[in-house]
Amino acid sequence: MKGKFFSAKNMAYLAVLLALVIVLQVFASVIPVGGAQLNFSLIPIVLGAVLLGPAGGAFLGCACGIVVLIQVITLPSNPFYAVIWTYAPVITTLTCIVKTTVAGLCAGLLYRVIAKRNRIAAVFTASALVPVLNTALFIVGCLCMSGAISGHMEMNGMNIFVFILVGLVTFNFFIELALNLVIAPAIHRVVVLVEKGVAAGREPVPEESAQREPLPQDKEEEHDHLH
After folding, report:
1. What DSSP letter does each residue of the chain carry, written as one string?
2. Per-residue confidence at 210, pLDDT binned at 50, 70, 90?
3. Contacts of 62 (CB under 8 A, 6+ apart)
4. How many domains does the chain have?
5. pLDDT tens by residue, 64-122
6. Is the CB of residue 43 less than 8 Å from the CB of residue 24?
7. What integer pLDDT is reported at residue 51 of this predicted model?
8. Structural domain contains residue 210
9. CA–CA dist 57, 63 (Å, integer)
10. Phi then psi for 22, rounded to 5 degrees?
11. Quick one: which of 38, 48, 86, 154 has the most CB atoms within 10 Å?
């Protein structure tokens, strides 16, 4: 987005998207799928990366990671959360915060590069990149905690990599990817149309139309005045 990052419009966008990140992430926690939750908050992260650039995407991603970390700490009833926070708190903290922060940052950077040639393709690419990076970094984090996970969770005979893919990632990833590819570009399109409408409404009246031809009664008054 052109203009300074701390403009009034950008701050308004950031405030709304931050509220969405928090609300969606908190409410997503009531929809457990396996050992994790569907991350609907990736949608506003995508929008932040597209509308506000890498800084906006990274900020919203970091905010999302902090909310996730709070959920990990405060939801001990979730067995996966309980295990990773109890036995690997440092790696858990880094995983929660880094994965969405990096996803938002990279989505903003890639959008800027592709948007120079095709803005629509750039929006869809950013929409796909956020869940891909988020999931990839989550897998890396889980592999770094493999000892804690394999030693304290029931894995039904699966090795750690298969357990992460099947038990924690696969279903969530495809749902998140589909949601982002459908919802994020649609919302972005609405925002663009609203911005164009607002901009059109603020356009100044051309001087030619402002200087109208005198009405007949104006000409009569001018004639009477001359006489």
Report:
1. --S-TTSHHHHHHHHHHHHHHHHHHHHHTTSEETTEE--TTHHHHHHHHHHHHHHHHHHHHHHHHHHHHHHHHH-TTSHHHHHHHHH-HHHHHHHHHHHHHHHHHHHHHHHHHHHTT-HHHHHHHHHHHHHHHHHHHHHHHHHHTHHHHHHHS--TT--HHHHIIIIIIHHHHHHHHHHHHHHHHHHHHHHHHHHHHHHHHHPPPPHHHHSPPPPHHHHHHHHHHH-
2. very low
3. 97, 100, 101, 104
4. 1
5. 999 999 999 998 778 889 999 999 999 999 999 999 999 999 999 999 999 999 999 99
6. yes
7. 93
8. no
9. 10
10. -65, -50
11. 48
Amino acid (1-letter code) at residue 168: L
Answer yes or no: is pLDDT of 29 > 60. Answer: no
Asked whether residue 73 is assigned to any structural domain, the reply reads: yes
In a domain, residue 1? The reply is no
Q: Would you state the pLDDT for residue 79? A: 87
What does the radius of gyration of the chain's CA atoms come to, in whole angstroms?
Answer: 26
Question: What confidence tens digit (pLDDT) does each residue in 38-58 have?
Answer: 668 899 999 999 999 999 999
Give strand pairing partners of 33.
Answer: 36
The answer to whether residues 149 and 142 touch, using CB atoms and an 8 Å cutoff, is yes
- Count H helices and E strands in the chain, helices first: 10, 2
Residue 214 lies in a domain: no
Domain range enclosing 28: 8-202
CATH of the domain at 198: 1.10.1760.20
